[in-house]
Design brief:
The chain is α/β, with parallel strands linked by helices and about 240 residues long. It contains 9 helices and 11 strands. Helix 6 runs parallel beside helix 8.
């Protein structure tokens, strides 16, 4: 069983069926799954959430946005999602704190590795907003960086699909889901897991990744317990 994890959630998943903004039902489901492993199981948890349900910096460049400003808007989108998750967790009786990679007090505390570790030990869900705080990096890269910095046991990537597939399962019905793969196979086969910066960071720092379907209630607990759910990416 994993004792200390970094959970990466996509902003698009928070949108649910409405495909934009925040679906309150989906948010509550995610919060309950996280609350369960922290409050009931005593797991130390850090969370990184994307912002694609509001804005994606890279896509903004196609509409005339400067890339740096576009990525900064994306960082603000992750902060909005982080605040929403923090509120949802607190409503369920869990302790949560938002730390941001760019200064925006009092919206969240400015990120500090040692502060994050301290809070996680105290039973807080530490929600890490604004990615790396720099443009040209995705929130997957931000999650990989925080996972390595905080020395967690594993990085869990919660998605809308059951794991890593040979092709996009939402587009190709013949796609096969792998139970186990490696970072080298991701490179060789061009598998869509995370951007290559995040893959390299995890591989070089020997940080395993589990990709699983977060939209199925109970899956997070199963992954933390070490049950055969999703795809394990090993180094």
């Amino acid at each position: 069983m994993y004792q200390k994890i970094l959970l990466k959630l996509s902003g698009e998943s928070l949108a649910g069926a409405q495909r934009h903004g925040i679906d309150e039902g989906r948010l509550a489901e995610y919060a309950e799954q996280i609350r369960e492993i922290v409050v009931d199981m005593g797991i130390e948890v850090g969370v990184v959430i994307g912002g694609g349900n509001f804005f994606r910096g890279l896509s903004g460049t196609d509409k005339g946005f400067d890339r740096v400003r576009g990525d900064q808007i994306g960082m603000l989108a992750t902060a909005m999602n982080s605040l929403a998750l923090c509120s949802a967790l607190e409503a369920l009786g869990a302790k949560a704190k938002v730390l941001t990679a760019v200064r925006m007090e009092p919206i969240g505390e400015f990120y500090n590795k040692w502060r994050a570790i301290e809070l996680m030990k105290q039973g807080y869900v530490v929600i890490l907003a604004c990615g790396t705080g720099n443009p040209f990096f995705t929130t997957d890269s931000g999650a990989a960086l925080r996972a390595v910095e905080l020395d967690v046991d594993v990085m869990l990537k919660g998605t809308r699909v059951d794991g890593v597939y040979s092709a996009d399962p939402e587009k190709d019905p013949t796609a096969v889901c792998f139970a186990l793969t490696s970072f080298d196979e991701i490179y060789a086969k061009g598998l869509k897991v995370m951007d290559l910066t995040a893959v390299t960071l995890c591989r070089d720092n020997r940080m395993p990744v589990v990709v699983f379907n977060m939209d199925k209630p109970g899956n997070l607990r199963k992954v933390v317990e070490g049950q055969s759910v999703g795809t394990i990416v090993h180094y």
